[in-house]
């Protein structure tokens, strides 16, 4: 049987028809996130039906639909309780979507769904226990222990980006100060790189962006450091230090077999992973002797969301 996976983001919606972990067809459409949930669900439903027709299937051949959404999701009721990136408050997404395709519809937080995709088809497929970390606008996470996604009693668990690592530290978008997200997201790295560029106008960072700080992205300080720039090296060293603090906390709590890192910054691969491992080994309980968690870069890229969503039926029926 075939399934549909939907990755509902604040900017774009990716929709795919899959079979046994293979994407048969995929389409991305703009979210226009200020709209009412009914209008967004209509776009998801209409696009899903169009894709079904395009690959020559009938609606009866679709076994289920999975939706990974930004925000707090109630998987039991099929409701998106709240999302700061969508105009949703207690939006009954399952009920609304089933007007277009009357099959089982499963809903989970998008970071959890991406973790589920990596666990089954990507960098985590050889492991029983996995923590997935996404370094993007914020820091998202998904926790899978012994094959089960951990979301807590009220579906809001796994918000690892909002553990405080610096009391009274940088302001976080959640309202607290000192959250890991405020130091280890791509947003935080760009902020700190801009600060360094302003403080040291003759650094290679400024040359790389032709003194236009708006051109700075998460790759810029790595490029500067690789060219031997001491300011770029300092920015990266500080960033990896903060990233290692949060990851050591995660290892101390869960002792996962593997941590999988995704997001644009993960494209730095060994330039990120190797110094990160070194710092983590000095922070975890027991030190390097007990550092057994593998640290890997995600493999599925932007397909993790739709692939993870497409098999939410497995998670909810296991």
TrEMBL record:
Cross-referenced InterPro entries: ATPase_NBD, ROK, ROK_cs
**Highest taxon listed in the record's lineage:** Bacteria
> Does this UniProt record's set of keywords contain Transferase?
yes
GO molecular function terms attached to this record: kinase activity
Keyword Transferase in annotation: yes
Q: Mark the transmembrane ranges.
A: none
The family classification in the record reads: Belongs to the ROK (NagC/XylR) family.
Name of the molecule in the record: Glucokinase /transcriptional regulator
Gene source species: Natranaerovirga pectinivora
